[in-house]
Amino acid sequence: MAVFVDREKCIGCESCVAVCPVGALSMQDGKAAVDAEQCISCGACINECPVEAISREAVVREVKNNEGSDLWVMAELEDSEPVGVTYELLGVTAELAKKAGEKCCAVLIAADAADIPQKLIAAGADKVYVITDSRYADYNTDLYTDAFCQLAEAYKPNAVLFGATADGRDFAPRVAARLHTGLCADCTALDIAAENNIVEWTRPALGGNILATILCDEHRPQMGTVRPKVFKAAAADASRTGEIISFTVQDVKASSVELLHKEALTTSGSIKIEDAEVICSGGRGMGCVDNFKLLEELAALFENGAIAGSRAVVDEGWIGHGQQVGQSGKTVTPKIYFACGISGAIQHISGMNASDIIIAINKDANAPIFKIAQYGIVGDIKEILPKLIAKIKAYKEA
Ligand SMILES: Cc1cc2nc3c(=O)[nH]c(=O)nc-3n(C[C@H](O)[C@H](O)[C@H](O)COP(=O)(O)OP(=O)(O)OC[C@H]3O[C@@H](n4cnc5c(N)ncnc54)[C@H](O)[C@@H]3O)c2cc1C
């Protein structure tokens, strides 16, 4: 948030201009003026001003009833295709838009739009804003932020939803700061108040022990990120029609970052945990990284199986962060979730409790994981897992 100059108090002494380390202050009509894009809110000018004309006070934009309409979803692409969370967000946004009497819109920034706008419309978008340029082939914070913010300034959305993916978590805060609005990160539930179209963003707070519902009622657009797999994607309807609006970005600035090399991250089994139908997940009770071979063997018995784990084992370095399930990892909804040597802390459970079937193996009969598991085996994973693997193998061979 930029600093604020009270022009009534400013005496035009220019001392703030001299002290600003990023050149964000200049004189306009004899008074200091702030370039909000440049300001880093360091406070050097606040300390220097002899008449206390500068403060960090929020410049609260008055939200007029007609300012900001329509709910936007930022479409995220991987290999030139929208990722799953984009469809999930369109599904829930279409419902919210209906309730609010607004349009559900998608924003596509890409090198080539191809048939993606039609896919977004089939998934629930009434309008698709398309920005294309060869420079947008890969996600780039600078270029995408410039493009998105110009579009938002031109069309003034009421709210914008981003996937809480690696790119979305990078992009959304930058956009929110540039547009001087708030951002509710990692939402797990959404609603909208039909009387004033204020979005109700719900997310875990205080270490996951409570769910907080947050409103952004003084700034537009209202913004939030939503975790993949929290909402189900609506079924695609190829008969849907929608408007496709091309937007041209003015004065494209050079990016401060240059992509030199791109390499796909591979995880064990190469199936992403968010896409897996069977997840064999290990916790600290697995004892050591070698014992994860048992989970790999178990996962390999299923067509779409993957291994995952708790934060404890990610911290140990036994698996990668991309395989962490829970509040600060990923939300998963497989058909079967094997929880092996996992105690069942709330932060873990919040990422997997929507699994169809939970099977827990733990040597402590009082472990909280048993409270949410449909099937529980009390025992040592080193004894139980080999037996389970042998049983499933025998069943498959029979
Ligand atoms: C802000 C915040 C965010 C967090 N985010 C996450 C998150 O995203 N994901 C996450 O998982 N955690 C997260 N945590 C950490 C979380 O609170 C727990 O510390 C963590 O989930 C514990 O991991 P665990 O169950 O593997 O280990 P432990 O709690 O140590 O449990 C190990 C379990 O293994 C059992 N066991 C031991 N040996 C054996 C054996 N031989 N055979 C069978 N069972 C055995 C024990 O009985 C015990 O129940 C977060 C915490 C905070 C504060």
Percent of residues in helices: 25-40%
CATH top-level class of the largest domain:
Alpha Beta
Radius of gyration, Cα only, in angstroms?
A: 25 Å
DSSP helix count? 11
Strand fraction band?
Answer: 15-25%
State the total count of DSSP E strands.
21
Largest sheet: 7 strands, parallel
How many discrete structural domains? 3
CATH-derived topology of the largest domain: Rossmann fold
**What is the arithmetic mean of pLDDT?**
92
What oligomeric state best describes the polypeptide chains here? single chain
CATH homologous superfamily grouping of the largest domain: HUPs
Strand order of the largest sheet: 11-15-10-5-8-9-16
Structural class: alpha/beta
